[in-house]
């Protein structure tokens, strides 16, 4: 094989030209691949790495935020429940108080009304009795007038009847 | 089984520069194949990949990244990333490009035109030399010239000649390992092909199965050798970059 010529001094020299071709081609290939393939690819891979990192960070942050919100919400719910119980309690007390007040008021007014009515009735009764008394007196006078018929003048008769009535009233 | 080599010699200011045309052609073809395959595999790049091509190339990129970071800190080795991926892709394609077919002209020399460029020691030794030169360059850059020179006299001063020669053996072993593997594979491929084409019915039947097996095995060797080459280059680089060697 004429290629195995390390140190060979024969007529076939080392193909230095091939070395040159290789070096030039390889360096061009390196440059072209770096520019057209490796750089864009590396950029994409780095982007992905950064994206993953930022997504993980983001997720972590979101988790913490969610936990905070949950705690907040729980506290809020507890607070609200306490508020609701307090309000309910207040309302109940208020209602009881009002109920009592209303009942009391109603009782008072009813009693008042009853008392008034009783008084009215009493008054009317007295008035009626007085009226009846008067009428009875007049009727008695008329009757007496008719019975006695002109034996006494009107004035004496009235005096007498009055006296009788007074005696009757005193008894 | 002697195959001719198409050569052309150009006189460069009195120095005869010889070009191995078939190797040069195959180098250029390999470069084009590597470039266009990778170029078209990475046209639709997305942060969330939609197709297999991008995933495959990314797997290669990450694989090489793993190779580098297994040898040195990524802060130091990151700048060799692109070079290492290009190198492994180039060597792998150069190794397998000779597998599917071969072109031998029917002239008197049986000129061989289509072959793996890495089946040529000039190519592998040039690549190895490039790597070794890089290790020295970055060694000096990373540690300073004084520490770099001093490293030849450690651990003992009289080891200096051995250390010095070692640098050339690195180059030779790195290049010749690749060359030997691929060249042997090519030879066996050519032998099997010639057995099939010239051995009659028996040769054709007897040679076909081994040819397929050998092609598969050569694919495996090609991948392994590309990996070993880049791995060793990174090992040598890390030796020169770090202080503990």
TrEMBL record, chain A:
Keywords of this entry: ATP synthesis, Cell membrane, CF(0), Coiled coil, Hydrogen ion transport, Ion transport, Membrane, Transmembrane, Transmembrane helix, Transport
Compartment annotation: Cell membrane; Endomembrane system
GO molecular function, one term: proton-transporting ATP synthase activity, rotational mechanism
Transmembrane regions listed in the UniProt entry: 12-38
One cellular component term from this protein's GO annotations in UniProt: plasma membrane
Main location: membrane
Membrane topology: Single-pass membrane protein
Signal peptide interval: none
Annotated PANTHER family: ATP SYNTHASE SUBUNIT B (PTHR33445:SF1), ATP SYNTHASE SUBUNIT B', CHLOROPLASTIC (PTHR33445)
Subunit structure: F-type ATPases have 2 components, F(1) - the catalytic core - and F(0) - the membrane proton channel. F(1) has five subunits: alpha(3), beta(3), gamma(1), delta(1), epsilon(1). F(0) has three main subunits: a(1), b(2) and c(10-14). The alpha and beta chains form an alternating ring which encloses part of the gamma chain. F(1) is attached to F(0) by a central stalk formed by the gamma and epsilon chains, while a peripheral stalk is formed by the delta and b chains.
Record protein name field: ATP synthase subunit b
TrEMBL record, chain B:
CDD domains reported for this sequence: ATP-synt_Fo_a_6
Molecular function GO labels: proton-transporting ATP synthase activity, rotational mechanism
Entry's Gene Ontology cellular component terms: plasma membrane; proton-transporting ATP synthase complex
Pfam families given in the database record: ATP-synt_A
Keyword hit for Transmembrane: yes
Annotated compartments: Cell membrane; Membrane
Keywords assigned by UniProt, alphabetized: ATP synthesis, Cell membrane, CF(0), Hydrogen ion transport, Ion transport, Membrane, Transmembrane, Transmembrane helix, Transport
Domain of life (superkingdom): Bacteria
Membrane-spanning parts: 21-42, 80-103, 123-140, 187-213, 219-237
Membrane topology qualifier: Multi-pass membrane protein
SUPFAM superfamilies, per database record: F1F0 ATP synthase subunit A (SSF81336)
Gene Ontology process terms (BP): proton motive force-driven plasma membrane ATP synthesis
Keyword Transmembrane among record annotations: yes
InterPro entries: ATP_syn_F0_a_bact/chloroplast (IPR045082), ATP_synth_F0_asu (IPR000568), ATP_synth_F0_asu_AS (IPR023011), F0_ATP_A_sf (IPR035908)
Function: Key component of the proton channel; it plays a direct role in the translocation of protons across the membrane.
HAMAP family: ATP_synth_a_bact (MF_01393)
Membership in a protein family: Belongs to the ATPase A chain family.
Protein name as catalogued: ATP synthase subunit a
Gene from which the chain derives: atpB
